[in-house]
Specification:
With about 350 residues, the protein is α/β, with parallel strands linked by helices. It has one domain: TIM Barrel. Helices cover about 50% and strands about 15% of the residues. It has 17 helices and ten strands. Strands 3-4-5-6-7-8-9-10 form an eight-stranded parallel β-sheet. Strands 1-2 form a two-stranded antiparallel sheet. Strand 7, helix 10 and strand 8 form a beta-alpha-beta unit. The chain starts with a strand and ends with a helix.
């Protein structure tokens, strides 16, 4: 489809129209927002032999989902101290604002800090909060944090992550929810049922990655443990009953088109079910997941949806509204953003 469309006898630039559309991002990993250029900067801080830009870019190349996890690990290993987290938080908000993103709910992995860095999370939370406050002030895009447990690290590590999130929530109201990422095959959602019940009682909102690299049973499990939003849900296409339940309950799905293709979880763009989901009445939202690792960002995902899958401009507005509606924002802010989306011309 052409970049420009005729509308009411005028021509509009689709990309710029989509950039201006007020958008919310609901599935974005802080550690996965690090660009190769920033990775070089981090490497200069910490490595005896710093990476060249070419070497940094090569770390973002992989062939399958496990390869992606190894690339993600190579990047996070160069996030050594709190100052690094402040830097990438500020840079993330600047990038989001440049795409017309007005709000983001961002995963941060306490599991990586606890399990791999073997240290307390408090200095890192203070750092991302410094970056968040500076970024929000300078660019206007707001951020809430979803604390992510690495599911294949086990239930005990998950308990440590979720309880720390609940403990810090009073001090940092920007911590709004919890989730489980990582390898679904080695960390079934059902194992976290009691922890999700405990997190909900503590006032935390519940998300879960599910149906990305394994089958529909993972999505069923995520629903059964109380997840309010489902990350990816790619495998739902193979279970008509599940599709019916998702449509009936209007459980928001955090769709990541380019991510699914680049990790090999979906064979190609032509086979992604995003339009099928939309036409089946599912509440889908568009997201970027780990932008530099997939060569995309949220604006690019909106452009992709419009140009590759034939979403109309009014449907693009509906997708933007879905993301706001599915967010964990307070009702007043949510209504304000919904009004902005509705009134956007």
């Amino acid at each position: 489809m052409a970049r420009r469309l005729a509308r009411r006898d005028t021509e509009i630039d689709i990309v710029e129209w989509l950039r201006g559309l007020p958008k919310a991002e609901l599935h974005l990993h802080l550690e996965g927002t690090v660009k190769p250029e920033t990775l070089v900067e981090l490497s200069r801080r910490h490595d005896d032999k710093p990476l060249t830009l070419e070497q940094a870019r090569n770390l973002y190349q992989y062939e399958n989902f496990l390869g992606f996890l190894m690339s993600f690990k190579a990047v996070t290993e160069r996030l050594k101290g709190p100052d690094d987290y402040e830097l990438i938080t500020y840079n993330m908000i600047r990038e989001l604002a440049s795409q017309g993103v007005v709000h983001a709910e961002v995963y941060i992995s306490f599991g990586i800090i606890f399990f791999i860095k073997q240290t307390d999370v408090e200095p890192y939370v203070e750092a991302i909060e410094r970056g968040r406050r500076r970024g929000e002030k300078d660019f206007g895009t707001t951020v809430l944090w979803i604390i992510d447990a690495v599911r294949h690290f086990g239930v005990d590590e998950g308990a440590r992550v979720f309880r720390k999130a609940a403990e810090l929530r009073d001090q940092y109201p920007s911590i709004v929810g919890i989730g489980i990422g990582g390898d679904e095959a080695r960390g079934p959602a059902e194992q976290f049922r009691d922890l999700y019940r405990e997190a909900k009682a503590a006032g935390l909102r519940l998300t879960a990655h599910a149906g990305e690299s394994v089958g529909p049973e993972s999505i069923w499990s995520a629903i059964n443990i109380g997840a309010e939003r489902i990350g990816h849900a790619l495998a739902a296409q193979h279970d008509p009953e599940l599709l019916e339940v998702l449509a009936q309950k209007q459980i928001p799905l955090e769709i990541n088109i380019t991510s699914n293709v680049k990790t090999g979880c979906c064979k190609g763009f032509d086979e992604h079910p995003v339009k099928e989901y939309f036409e089946s009445g599912l509440m889908i939202t568009l997201n970027s997941d780990d932008p530099p690792m997939f060569g995309s960002d949220l604006l690019s995902e909106y452009v992709l949806a419009q140009q590759t899958y034939g979403f109309t401009m009014e449907q693009m507005r509906e997708l933007a509204a879905n993301a706001v509606e599915a967010s964990f924002l307070d009702p007043t802010r949510k209504l304000g953003l919904l009004k902005r989306v509705e009134q956007y011309i």
